[in-house]
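Hi V.,

Quick status before I head out on leave. The structure for the redesign project is tokenized and pasted below; the design run finished overnight.
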């Protein structure tokens, strides 16, 4: 039967000299990876805030990184007015913010001692008003969620990266958070969006 010859034709074609699929990268590709902490100094709801987290990724050919990051609000200096957020007078409230997403980063001339990288994060997060027992007292175990909501975030950034050692790099940069879909009393998209200064420590194989 003629259809019995189909597997044989496939084998012969795959072994034919010069038969090679087209790819984005040609030749040998170097692979690496990194992980490390990130600190972002920013403004949240018109107050100074600190966001801390970790990020990591798979480095392709020393330049392109595919990875992910997880971040959360580390500072707790923000005072919330119970009347503005739908709370009870006399009780203490705290704002909690966290987000995570996929990250893409491109390094220009990564072999140089100092070089520029461009990155962006796309993902989602959550924001909540947490309620303590009473004003002037806070206990995370007793904290209750007054209200919460989710949001979408896109955060592009630019960094100046220093090659400290083969397995260690430090990056100083700036990013901007574009936050949408916030629907929480007393809080708008603009309160969570904003410019930030970032410090990243990278440990890995570059």
């Amino acid at each position: 039967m003629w259809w019995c010859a189909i597997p044989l034709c496939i084998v012969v074609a795959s072994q034919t000299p010069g038969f090679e699929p087209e790819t984005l990268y040609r030749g040998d590709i170097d692979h690496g990876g990194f992980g490390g902490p990130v600190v972002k100094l920013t403004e949240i709801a018109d107050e100074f805030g600190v966001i801390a987290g970790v990020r990591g990724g798979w480095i392709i050919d020393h330049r392109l990184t595919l990875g992910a990051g997880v971040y959360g609000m580390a500072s707790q200096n923000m005072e919330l007015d119970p009347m503005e957020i739908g709370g009870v007078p006399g009780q203490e409230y705290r704002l909690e913010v966290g987000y995570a997403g996929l990250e893409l980063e491109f390094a220009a001339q990564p072999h140089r001692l100092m070089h520029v990288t461009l990155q962006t994060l796309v993902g989602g997060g959550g924001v909540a008003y947490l309620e303590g027992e009473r004003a002037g007292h806070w206990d995370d175990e007793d904290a209750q969620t007054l209200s919460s909501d989710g949001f979408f975030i896109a955060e592009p950034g630019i960094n100046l990266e220093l090659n400290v050692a083969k397995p260690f790099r430090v990056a100083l940069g700036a990013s901007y958070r574009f936050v949408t879909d916030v629907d929480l009393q007393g809080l708008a998209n603009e309160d969570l969006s904003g410019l930030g200064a970032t410090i990243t420590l990278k440990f890995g194989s570059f």
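Above is the designed sequence. The radius of gyration is 24 Å.

G. will cover questions while I'm gone.

Best,
W.
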